[in-house]
Amino acid sequence: MSEAPVKRTWLVAAWPGMGNVAVLAAGYMIQKLGMTPGGGLPPRGHFDVRAVEVSAGVIATPRLARNLVYRWSGEGEVDLVVFVGEAQPDTGLFAFAHELLDWAQGAGVSRVVTFASMATQLHPSKAPTVFGAVTQSDMAAELERIEAKPLEEGQIAGLNGVLLGACAQRKIPATCLLGEIPFFAAGVPNPGAARAVLQGFSALTGVKIDVAELGEHAKTIERALLEMLEKLQAEGRLPEGMTDEAPEHAPEVEEAKPEEKQLDFATRERIEKLFEQARADRAKAFELKRFLDAQGVFRQYENRFLDLFKRGE
To answer: What is residue 91's DSSP assignment?
Structure first.
């Protein structure tokens, strides 16, 4: 009788950054795999209150950014622990990274992956490249296997990169997968880059994740980015060197805005409740997106939906 394969536990860690690629990818994976909430890591002096929420003129009681943990065990060789930080720490990033690794190793984690973004002159109509960086030279072949382009030089800012520095110091094998985004839209959530990152992650781990829904979200953002690009070019505000060639397969851009659909009170209440849940836990954002699509009102709420991902930039 053949022995069952030895299970390994991988930590996936994500914090807000350009294009919010890391949190988008991690939140989507949590939803699609039906991951189980598993506590969190206390702030321990690394976070401060940087803004307060206001509703109908009333200021809510401030709270510190949360660090949430989710767990998943599949049939393959890899189990996952996903850590999602609502914000980058205000101080002590490297110390916080080591505290997270102390906790992770106590939970049996033997491998670490972070997600990030790479801002380039990518045209919005083009498929993003996935770049990669590893903590050990003998892991470079993995990047070739999953068709990730090695990051030749540069920096990975924030904890999406600093955590890998802590891993390198501890000799923990770790990988960063970076999704390519257009530099002129670094503040816009980019589900296309998140989709590419998750495809690379699936190839790396063997964990299957259906990314079709992210592809649909990417089409919505692509239309908005094409409009933004055209406007910037028309105003002459693009930095020198940005390509202005027409996309080969540009989607049709709807010029007319749809009429605002009237919703009953119960539906509006449901939407507001989903927005409240998504603000508290961005993994809930895709449930909100599906409900808005089902009601045919996503375009009415599109700006509010995108604003959910701008916190922490």
So the answer is: S
